[in-house]
Amino acid sequence: MTGKRGGVILAHVLSSICEKMNRKKSLPNDGGRSQDTLKRCLSTLDITLLGIGHMVGAGIYVLTGTVAKDIAGPGIIFSFFLAGLVSILAAICYAEFGTRVPKAGAAYVYTYIAVGEFWAFIIGWNICLEHMLGAASVSRAWSGYVDSLLGGWIKNTTLALLGGEAHYDSDLLAQYPDVLACLICLVYALAMALGVKITAAFNGILTLINIGVMLLVICVGFWYADLQNWFQADGGFLPYGFGGVIAGAATCFYAFVGFDSIATSAEEARNPASSVPIATLVSLSAVSAGYILVSAALTLMIPTDQINPSASLPEAFGQLGLPWAKIIITIGALCGMTTTLLGSLFALPRCLYAMACDGLLFSCFGRVNSMTQVPVLNLLASGTFSALLALVFDLKHLVEFMSIGTLLAYTIVAASVIVLRYRPLKPESLIYAPDSSESENLDYEADSLSENSSADTISQTGELIGRSSGVYLKAKYKWLEPLVGCFEPERVVSTCVMLFCIFTFGICFQLKVYWTDSKADDASYWTFLFNGFILFFALACVTLIGAYTQNTQGLTFKVPFVPVFPALSIFANIALMVHLSFVTWLRFFIWVSLGMLMYFGYGIHHSRQDGGENSNYSILRTATGQQSAADVEQESGNKQSAGTSIAICHRFIGRKKSKGEQIQ
């Protein structure tokens, strides 16, 4: 008896934990406002410049030369084009959520609403690391760029002070502590504590300077362009083949990371419903055009084998006998890296703020300064940890680690767009007083229901409720009713999205593993047969999702061609994820394991979504058969509430109460 009771208790506890891990956050009906809210003061131009500044930084001055010389050659323009398309697919998903949920936290909040608390914490935990590593790596790039201008004086002086041989034989630790990079993170974090409007103004000035330098590079580069530089190298325009273009796109994709700061700033936008989608599309379009034109100008000025990867643009102009341009490009590079650093330090504290407001992190991170209306403690913590990383670690080996968290966030956001688009309205939203015409129609439908058999009544009642909620099978897909008619539309769509992600991962993994063996006849036959089998089921999942109507109530901006566009975004993100190294995945799981200690040790017990009805104490009492009078009274109240809900549902579908029900 004791063993049986213990098993029941364990089952209840595990059920409670699973229920808490899957609880969802409700869509805000207050326009994103809260009692301790951030200040809404950012215009569309401010948010646009914030997004451009976060994306256009070290990538255009360092990444362009590396990809052009070692990966794609002149085909880098196609690499940036493909990377821009993949980024736009993810960005429009962020834009829809930014208008639907104008809250700080971006992907974390979106996942909390659409998927559940556990995955939301995973996304938020990884986004925090992503921005922390991003800030630290950019600060080291900033320091390294200044040191190169000074002829290595900073590095040599630091090594001399430490004894000349103070370097570490490690892939992670830096050769010397970068004090300048550490100070840069701290100084900018303290400066951002002055207020978001001051930060936006400073970022806007630096971004405009950076854009001016880019335009100068494009104009001067095309003036000195020589088409022979595209075709005189071995292999012509694509010296590394189309595979080099794809590999270059995977690398160039991370140059577009940063547009999520636009969605993060939604809670501080004056009109997020219009500002977020406009800023997202304008900034990504401008950045994509800028990257393509700058890379084209670089590869047209000098042959790709003469490009210096560490300082491609200054050296290119130096070879053309234009030393004045080197000074201007240096100014643009420092401005660009500064805006990228500001973007990371802007997004990181707000992600901590969103998680703390939901109770998943310590409550001290959910406080906003009454004067500046920014989370000052979060800024100080973010700047301090980023500064320590920049001081000690050589983050060039951890840049790939940033990508896995970013791609995972993009994947979950795209999946969340599909789930929410097909989520029916909640029953409480169906409580309304119909006008006279609606009442007559409902009464007529009630009379017709009463004339049918009980099975037909249930079917038509479900159809009426489904239509009222905005999600039901389209007329041309009625033949699927025997297959999915007994399931809720939301459950069908969620299951299809999960299966599509699994099938997509299987396809991408198989293509990666068997790509080298596909030249053999047997391997090619079985590989393509297996992939075709998986692809069929993946497309079937997308088709089944598209068989339902969508709930677009209240959306001012919508992702077009749902579920196709989000599905393409999921496929592209997973395809890039499977090409990451095993070490990157190992580091990812170690970081997630640390997050699990935080979630199960603190977050799951302090979540704001916990109403207390599933506490361990109440579960133990229920499992052992101990119920107090208060529990019985609460259970009675729940039954009365359930009866009220049934009555409301009956009223909505047009069913009239019987005399016995009216007397009761």
From TrEMBL:
It is found in: Membrane. The keyword Thylakoid does not apply. InterPro entries: AA/rel_permease1, CAT_C. It is a multi-pass membrane protein. The chain crosses the membrane at residues 42-63, 75-95, 107-127, 178-198, 205-225, 237-257, 278-302, 322-348, 376-395, 401-420, 492-513, 525-549, 561-582, 588-605. Keywords: Membrane, Transmembrane, Transmembrane helix, Transport. This is Cationic amino acid transporter 4. Residues 557-607 form the Cationic amino acid transporter C-terminal domain. The gene is LOC101893368. Its main location: membrane.
